[in-house]
Design a protein that fits this description.
The structure is a single chain. The chain has 2 domains: about 90 residues, DNA polymerase, domain 1 (Orthogonal Bundle); about 190 residues, hpI Integrase, Chain A (Orthogonal Bundle). About 55% of the residues lie in helices and about 5% in strands. The protein has 13 helices and 3 strands, in the order αααααααβββαααααα. Strands 1-2-3 form a 3-stranded antiparallel β-sheet. A hairpin with a 4-residue loop joins strand 1 and strand 2. The longest helix has 21 residues. It is globular and about 70 Å long.
């Protein structure tokens, strides 16, 4: 299996799967191979995969960067299932596998976390933490705050994610030329040659986002080329999804915003779009979803808001007529 994995991962790269997906599938399928003691692919049986999933849910101890060893979530178990299904589909075609052991392997159940958009106060606190350091107290002078060295970049990033609902990976892949501040549009290019994850689309950006991007770009060197990354690290490298995630986690901790991550800004954009009379089909296009399934979840949340608002405001109910 370990030799087959090399060919499988090479095929994924050739088919323009993202590097993050390739790395994830590599880790998950290597875990499977180690559990089964690196068998021949043709000798893997359905019962082996059943044993593996039982192991993942009961005895497997995750090794996360955070040190958290909590059991795997439903979504992670589903990712293991997807990796296995993808691998054996490839093996069927490339290795002439006669019988697929995953044919009747059921998708593990998942109880997705509730959608928790950020409140207006949380967003303002997040932007404030991006602009300024914590208050410093000394015996010599008054309490003071200083502007952070990356204030313009971090503020522009937060506002752009909030204003467009784009994914962190899409924000990381933006080049300077993709942001047209005169027309107020950004262009999201698909990843590689496929549109499996990212749909190419041009999205409008508001005045505040345009202004924050302009301020950030004035901090870049004058000889910066249009084809250079829009968001870069202090070392001058392109910011990837992980660096954006870590940045928002740190800023959220400083601002007192719990569970702060890029997708919460995406959720916030979607919910606010629908709350302000946006339609689900336009939202689907903006977010780059291939179906309306996720958009409907946002819509259900907004409808619940409307019911609660009516319950609080209904004159007939409040006046007890």
């Amino acid at each position: 299996m370990s030799h087959a994995l090399d060919g499988f991962l090479f095929t994924l790269k050739a088919e323009s799967y993202s590097q993050a997906t390739v790395d994830l599938y590599h880790i998950m399928l290597t875990t499977l191979s180690d559990f089964l003691e690196n068998p021949k692919v043709s000798e893997i049986a359905a019962k082996d995969l059943t044993r593996y999933f039982a192991y993942l849910q009961s005895d497997y101890v995750p090794r996360r960067q955070s040190g958290n060893t909590a059991p795997l979530s439903g979504s992670t178990l589903q990712n293991h299932w997807k990796a296995i299904r993808c691998f054996f589909k490839w093996a069927e075609e490339e290795l002439n596998l006669k019988s697929r052991p995953d044919a009747k392997l059921k998708l593990p159940p998942n109880n997705p976390k509730a959608i928790l958009p950020l409140s207006e106060d949380e967003v303002k606190a997040l932007v404030d933490s991006a602009e300024y350091t914590r208050q410093a107290k000394t015996n010599v002078r008054r309490t003071f705050r200083m502007k952070r060295p990356t204030a313009e970049r971090d503020t522009a990033l937060i506002i752009l994610l909030l204003d467009t609902g784009i994914r962190s990976g899409e924000a990381g892949r933006l080049n300077i030329k993709d942001a047209d501040l005169e027309t107020g549009e950004i262009y999201i290019a698909p990843y590689g040659s496929s549109q499996r994850k990212t749909k190419s689309r041009a999205l409008p950006i508001g005045k505040v986002a345009r202004k924050s991007l302009w301020r950030y770009l004035t901090t870049r060197p004058k000889d910066t080329r249009p084809d250079e990354p829009l968001f870069i690290t202090v070392a001058g490298r392109r910011m990837g999804p992980n660096s954006i995630r870590c940045l928002l986690k740190d800023l959220g901790a400083k601002a007192g915003v719990k569970n702060c991550h890029p997708h919460r800004l995406r959720h916030t954009f979607a919910v606010e779009f629908l709350r302000n009379d946006g339609d689900i089909f336009t939202l689907q296009m903006i977010l780059g979803h291939s179906s309306l399934d996720m958009v409907r979840k946002y819509l259900q949340l907004v409808k619940a808001d409307a019911k609660n608002a009516h319950r609080r405001a209904s004159p007939a109910d409040r006046w007890k007529l």
